[in-house]
Specification:
By secondary structure, the protein is an all-beta fold. The chain has strands at about 10, 20-25, 35-40, 45, 55-60, 75-80, 95, 105-110, 115-125, 130-140, 140-150, 160-165, 165-169. The strands form four sheets. The chain has a four-stranded antiparallel β-sheet, with no helix packed on it. The chain has a four-stranded antiparallel β-sheet with strand order 10-9-12-13, with no helix packed on it. The chain has a three-stranded antiparallel β-sheet with strand order 7-8-11, with no helix packed on it.
Length: about 170
């Protein structure tokens, strides 16, 4: 429940014998390792998720302090985070896919407010340094731009910044 582009609340039925619950979640495509969390109630909020991404999760009850007495894992559950939407512009959406990226990805920005503007797209590393940029892209209501990851780009997290007139997305 309460799924946003970057968070979700996982819910399950409570167990009378559970001292606490162990939850595992991960990208459903199997890229990356599972994250394990513990909860004392029958729900937990998880955050720092990727927008428009399919996740899988399951839960088990821990019924004794030795943590060896537990239920089996529940059946695998799935949810997709919401698409990241541009704030301040009605109906604006920004999509980046595929995610995660191996060689290149498509940036799709759509909003009627962007007619007759030019944009500059920056790809920033985790330190905020530009590792790629493309200037003077015409934005007539939308931008569709294929971006190829630079050969010097290391694996990791990147930020995409679109600059238009006085607005940064």
């Amino acid at each position: 429940t309460s799924i946003t582009p970057v968070s979700a609340v996982l819910n399950w039925e409570s167990s009378a014998t559970a001292l606490y619950y162990e939850i595992e979640y991960a990208l459903a495509e199997g890229n990356g390792s599972a994250i394990t969390k513990n909860a004392v109630s029958h729900n937990i909020e998880i955050s720092n998720l990727l927008p428009n991404t399919l996740y899988s999760w399951h839960v088990k009850s821990i019924c004794a302090t030795d943590s060896f007495t537990s239920s089996d894992w529940s059946e695998m559950q799935y949810f997709t985070t919401e698409v990241l939407k541009v704030s301040g512009v009605a109906g604006a959406t920004l999509s980046l896919y595929p995610n995660p990226v191996s060689e290149n990805f498509l940036l799709h920005l759509k909003a009627a407010a962007y007619n007759d503007q030019t944009a500059t797209i920056y790809l920033l590393n985790a330190l905020g340094q530009a590792v790629y940029s493309v200037k003077d892209i015409t934005a007539n209501g939308e931008i569709n731009q294929v971006i190829t990851m630079p050969g010097t780009a290391a694996s990791g997290w990147y930020i995409v910044r679109v600059v238009m007139r006085d607005e940064v997305i």
